[in-house]
């Protein structure tokens, strides 16, 4: 067993949510309408991994599933402290729901071999499901802790974290190998320096396709063929129009008129 921790960070390239347009006909985000960035919650996951690396030594591997352009986000991850990056890209990965996405990511982690800790952002801003982290843990057969707000202690065998679920806080010790999902409260992600950006441009990105995972996974469980759910329809919720009335004159007369209206509507007796 190596004395250095092996940490895997899952990141996703997402459209800038403030600029992206939504295609109501297809029920999908028009990703071409906005610049692509690393999912903000995944930046917290990456920062958590890099802080552990600086604290006790670790190898940080960033993995992303997406189009070829997601390589830009992986280079950003390297500039922010990741040691290596792997891009999962293939047309057979397209159209994946959270289950198929999690299966593909877990398959890539299995291909990597021995690891200690997987760190994910709690959710993505384009999907907002918070499902991928826990599902990856399930496919890997490892324990996980979600909604981690603080990493209190870590050693070679386990990590002690504070997690918030609902109104309650939980202090949980998680043995390795394990997975955590972190919230935006866990840290403040650093900005890469110009030198780090230049260095990241020279770093080779490992690229895996469906065939690369075929000895570990079932290809028909990737992408849309492995997705039991799909978007059927997207629409704005119906809202009933409301009208207002303004009563002028004496306060007591206005109050009586309001009471009469409420009685007419059977709101009061």
Brief digest:
The chain is an alpha/beta fold. Helices cover 27% and strands 26% of the residues. Strands 11-10-9-12-8-1-6-7-13 form a nine-stranded mixed β-sheet, sandwiched between helices. A two-stranded antiparallel ribbon has the order 2-5.
Structural features, described:
This protein is 27% helix and 26% strand. The protein is an alpha/beta fold and 269 residues long. It has one domain (5-226): HUPs (Rossmann fold, 3-Layer(aba) Sandwich). It has a nine-stranded mixed beta sheet with strand order 11-10-9-12-8-1-6-7-13, with helices on both faces. A two-stranded antiparallel ribbon has the order 2-5. Strands 3-4 form a two-stranded antiparallel ribbon. Strand 10 (158-165) and strand 11 (168-175) form a beta hairpin. The longest helix has 17 residues, at 40-56.
Offer a few descriptive terms.
single chain, 13 strands, alpha/beta, Rossmann fold, 269 residues, 27% helix, nine-stranded mixed β-sheet, two-stranded antiparallel sheet
Secondary-structure map:
Blueprint: E1 5-10, E2 13-15, E3 21-23, E4 28-30, E5 36-38, H1 40-56, E6 58-65, H2 71-79, E7 84-88, H3 98-112, E8 117-121, H4 132-140, E9 144-154, E10 158-165, E11 168-175, E12 178-182, H5 194-202, E13 206-208, H6 251-264
Parallel strand pairs: 1-6, 1-8, 6-7, 7-13, 8-12, 9-12
Antiparallel strand pairs: 2-5, 3-4, 9-10, 10-11
Helix pairs in contact: 2-5, 3-4
